[in-house]
Target: csmd
Amino acid sequence: MDFNVLFFNSITVVIHLLVFSTDSDANCILPPELRNMDWIYNYTRPDNNQAVTTTLRFQNTVLPSPSSINFNAVGTTIDAWTCISNLTLSNTEFVVLFKSDVSYTSGPFSGSRRLYLCMKFTKVTDNLFYFYLLSDVDNTIFPNERVFNPPGNSIPADTDPLCSTFCQYSTEPKIRTLQKIGTIDVVPIDAALCTPCESPCEEQVVTCPDLAVVNFTTITNQTGTNDQDTITYACITGYELTSGSLTRQCMADGTWNGNLPVCEIVSCPDLAAVKFAKITAQTGTNYQDTITYACNKGYTPTYGSRLTRTCKADGTWNNDPPSCKKSHKAKECQQPMDDTAADQDQNGDSNVPDSVPEAANVDNLQDETKDKQPASESSNDSNDDSEDDEQQLVVSKERILKSDFFVNTILRLGLLPFIINLSRSAQFQQDNDPKHRSNLSKRFMQENQINWWDIWPSESPDFNPIEMVCMMKQRLNKKKLSTKNDLTSGNFWKNDLTVERCNTFIDHNFKGITSGCVYWWTCNRDLPKKIFPENQGRGH
Model:
């Protein structure tokens, strides 16, 4: 028997036995779109760069024989493959490793060898895939193709790392496509091989769920809802963070770190009791709540004192605690002195006689008005609802009543605190005395936002109660005083304009005006109208 014939016959027997030794227990999962389907397979041969179009069928996890991917390895035909491993990179990208069902040997001492196909797939649509064979070209098989062909004495285990063991190459492979028969889907122009093997072409975007609306907050900044995006909150005015996080970040696991912020209304501390004052109203101690005080009977707010306080957004009360001091009424009306011609300066200043006595300090006056009122003239007090309201009488010691004193002492110390505590909507009126009309006085009204009647008729007792105290207009008319001596005589003051009657006028004015500025000498400029009857027909 010819030895050569015997040798080849023995090889034939060996190959014949190995054909039936295929792997059927693969640990691999293929996308369902690929399975049990014939695909149009387009590629370029690496050995001669010729374009090839054929069909390729995936039967579950195998490429059944005769597969269009087939080789001749030293006389052995290899045309059936089984998937032994896969790696999912994204929803559309995956790596699959096929192992040849048939082994081959290059000689009696070379050992059995297998071929491996490492395919990196990208799904374009259900009808179209493209892939790359991630191996260098093996020139020992025909046709030359990109397969992994390990030496017979170094066969890797099926469980070895996929990419680092089976999918190595030194020259970049060309694209191959699988298209479902009868479809016309097109490969994108930006289709490319993404490296390394385990790297997807498109990173999977991790998205966190939208967050619920958080009460009492606003979103000041949000970069998105993907991985590493942030959302930043701020408590609305009057609210503060009590728990949770004002900034949260989307994490790689699709959740937001931290907890939802909890903002609660700001609370102000309880206030200490105020001396000589009582609380007339309080809405609470939270943001924008108010507390309102009233000075006790016989007391009045000091200059600049505010009777209402509001809880602010920073948890503090606005304004200082109110301050109340003892208030007084005029003890009695003073007898007017001789009239003296007074020049008016540009600021509305007027000169008064040297004989004007120094007025008593208002803080030393005693509250005797009520005690001195005749019962017949004070009966209207029984219906007065403002028994706790006290007024301040400001009396000038200056010999010359100038605009700066009028503004900085009378208006600033007397009028302004009352207007602030009363209401900014209240209207203030005074007569046309030059000091009242001076630029300094007007500027004060404007700067302090006092609602002021800029034009007001002089000597209008119906609307200007101060006229009733200063000039006692009606009584002067009844007496028909015609000379200065008539006015300054003691009989008029002893018998007619008595202390009791003067106090009655003052009490009446205290009910109508909270801050009265009484200057008896300012009447001197108007006395000629009372002395000379021809000056009285002017509509007053």
